[in-house]
Amino acid sequence: MPDTAVTEFLGSLRRVISNVHLYPAGHPQSEVALDMLMETTGSLTAGIDGVVLSIMDNAFYLDRTLLPQESLEYRDLYRLFQERGLDSISLEGRPSSGDLGELAAFLAKDGSDIPADGTIRLNERPFNRSELVKFASMSQIRHSYTASLDFLQGVADSMEDGEGADISDAVWTVEQLLEQVLLQPGASLLLSSLKTHDEYTFYHGINTALLALTVGQRIGLNTEQLVQLGVGALLHDLGKIRVPVEIIQYPGRLDDKMWTEIKRHPHEGAQAILAGTGEGQEIAALVALEHHAQYDLTGYPDIGRRERLHLYSRITSICDVYDALTTRRSYKRAMPPATALQTIVAGSGTQLDPDLVQVFVSILGIFPAGSLLRLDTGEVAAVVTAGHDGETMTAAIAISADGERVSVPETFMLEASRVTGLLLPEDVGLDAATLLEASQLAID
Ligand SMILES: [Fe+2]
Fold first, then answer.
1. What pLDDT shows up at residue 2?
2. Residues 108-127: what's their mean pLDDT?
3. Do 302 and 394 lie in a common domain?
4. pLDDT above 90 (res 128)
5. In terms of domains, do 298 and 382 share one?
6. Prior bond to 336 cis, omega within 30?
7. What is the whole-number distance in angstroms between the Cα of residue 327 and the centre of ligand 1?
8. How many CB atoms lie within 10 A of CB 180?
9. Cα 264 to middle of ligand 1, angstroms
10. What is the torsion angle, in degrees rounded to the nearest 10, for the CA atoms of residue 299, residue 300, residue 305 and residue 310?
């Protein structure tokens, strides 16, 4: 089964479900989506008798294997499974189109049709909890990340409906993230390297918050201060929701008009936070307003004659730039983390606060968690935790010397002198969530 088969299956199932609400039965669009679901199901079960997709503790499992990245990306499907009382779906051989359609209708809450042909069976739960739970010791941190994604989705929905931003759960959300940063700092840093193309603004907010909380903790902020910093970092780009998506995702050079639109987002964000249904978020609004203003005040918007940016804005700026540089977008390749850190250092003293840059670099190390490194043996290793001495780190071999993907990577101490090159996740096909799960025992 190809690595991408399950992702494509979940994606096409999601599409068929949303079509149930959009089009009448038999509409050409629905037929196309159902054909696609047939095809992806075929790839998923190619050459095997059948598979079981089940859910537990905020995660999807394919047979006995946890799907870390998919558990985050398809959390809306996870919720539908829960709401419909579905623990598992057993796909037999090649399921019929009728059964797949009925499964989607059932999940879409359109009637109570359950698959009738017998090629899909529900809730057989062939694996017991203890068989799956051993893979799920990261369930708490995954839960915090999922809850944060849900929170940001809710904020975006409330803004798109023309209401004020509903940020009443912002403090609760940041408290969940903070707990993880304090309890599992290494795992949190690795998780902050999680990327996706679909929900960039949400992932970006959470990654920025995880990094900012780590910096805040290192410089000795107390819990109340950390929560304020975290809320600011989480919501700093909220104003982007008000900028047309064609401009946000524009693949070429932006013209002046587009830039003017982009430059509105700090103001828009600050206003949305102030007008939102949450209390005491003036500092978060300030962070949103100032996050592009730059340390030497040469950025945007012009914040007037104030001498310096708020400490939390200066922390957020660094984490914002780092996460943006290390993320692939439709118009640019990602930078490897180590290269992004060099860019951060190059901006120290002008764009970014030099003291805080120093703290940031000391936390992330030369090769930050999530880095993918080519070794002198030809193997590819993923960094699990950065070393503090600058010479060694905990890593796991992701690709063997002959180019084979290592399915259960084991961790080892890697010396920096063995690194011969930097790679990107898209070169290797390994995401941070999977790495976190595979290497959980070595973290923290
Ligand atoms: Fe921004």
1. 46
2. 78
3. no
4. no
5. no
6. no
7. 14
8. 21
9. 10
10. -80
DSSP string across 254-265: --HHHHHHHTTH
Q: How far is the CA of 240 from the centre of ligand 1 (A)?
A: 7
Q: Are residues 299 and 357 in the same domain?
A: yes
Q: Is residue 133's pLDDT more than 70?
A: no
Q: Are residue 121 and residue 261 in the same domain, yes or no? A: no
Least confident of 229-238, 247-256, 263-272, 400-409: 400-409
DSSP letter assigned to residue 125:
-
Q: Strand, helix or coil at 242?
A: helix
pLDDT bracket for residue 1 (50, 70, 90):
very low
Can you give the residue range of the structural domain that contains 193? 139-364
Query: Distances in Å between the alpha carbon of 39 and those of 9, 13, 35, 311?
Result: 8, 11, 6, 52
What pLDDT score was predicted for residue 426? 77
Do 355 and 339 lie in a common domain? yes
252 and 189 within one domain? yes
| Sole residue written with tokens 């780190």 | 393
Question: What is the Å distance from ligand 1's center to 155 Cα?
Answer: 17
How far are the Cα atoms of 188, 319, 379 from residue 418, in angstroms, in the given order? Answer: 26, 28, 11
Show Cβ contacts of residue 240 under 8 Å, excluding neighbours closer than 6 positions. Answer: 201, 248, 265, 269
Would you say 218 and 189 are in contact if contact means Cβ atoms under 8 Å apart?
no
Q: What is the pLDDT of residues 240-261, one digit of tens each?
A: 988 888 888 788 888 899 999 9
Q: Examine the pLDDT at 134 and tell me if it is beyond 70.
A: no
For residue 218, report the distance from its CA to the centre of ligand 1, in Å.
Answer: 24
* pLDDT over 80 at 143, yes or no: yes
Q: How many C-beta atoms surround the C-beta of residue 287 within 10 A? A: 33
Three-state DSSP at 395 gives strand
**pLDDT for the residue 408:** 65
Ligand 1 center–CA 318 separation, angstroms:
11
Q: How is residue 443 written in tokens? A: 């973290």
Task: Domain count for the chain, please give it.
Answer: 3
Query: What pLDDT does 339 receive?
Result: 94
330 and 186 inside one domain? yes
pTM, two decimals, is: 0.83
Q: How remote is the CA of residue 317 from the centroid of ligand 1, in Å?
A: 9
